[in-house]
Amino acid sequence: MKYKRFEDLPVWQDAIELAVIVFALTARPNFKGYGSLKDQIERAVVSISNNIAEGFERGTTPELLTFLYISRGSSGETRSLLCLIDRLPGFEDLRSEISDLRSRAESISRQLRAWADSAQNSEIRGQRYLTDRGRRATTEAREREEFLKELEEIKARHG
């Protein structure tokens, strides 16, 4: 499936949901006295979705990859901060929620890695480089593949 807007990307949606939950967590009284830690995890978690969006909008595969890896780094930073919070005094009652957040951040990292691997192995250089001629060639190649697949299915049924 080809996505036209970053808002439709499942990984972006997961990153936004993670940020919403982290902000709800940091609004708790447990974070009183941990202002810089609160700010740092909020910045890290927001960076995940923002870098997905920026990379998606850039228009070239190399730029997309750069921002996917930055986003993945922010997801790692979020997990690291959650590990720290889990070990600090005063957060014992949040262990289950912190564990869930770490799992969500890890899932986002896996999704980003898979997307980056796919983009690295793609012949497509990005929307910015796509000319009318290139678009036609891509469309013709896709239609040719669909036609050949259809022929194979007919052959298999009547074979």
What does this structure look like?
- The chain folds into two domains: 120 residues, de novo design (two linked rop proteins) (Up-down Bundle); 30 residues.
- It has five helices and no strands.
- The longest helix has 27 residues.
- It is elongated, with a radius of gyration of 21 Å.
- The chain starts with 9 loop residues before the first helix and ends with a helix.
Instruction: Report helical residue fraction.
Output: over 70%
Query: What portion of the residues fall into strands of 2 or more residues?
Result: under 5%
CATH-derived topology of the largest domain? de novo design (two linked rop proteins)
Note the run of SSEs as H and E. HHHHH
Number of strands: 0
N-to-C terminal Cα separation, in Å? 31 Å
Low-confidence stretches: none
Cα shape: elongated
Please describe the structure with a list of short key phrases separated by commas or semicolons.
159 residues; mainly alpha; de novo design (two linked rop proteins); 2 domains; elongated
Write the layout of secondary structure elements.
Blueprint: H1 10-26, H2 35-58, H3 61-87, H4 95-120, H5 132-158
In short:
The chain is built from five helices and no strands. It is mostly helical.
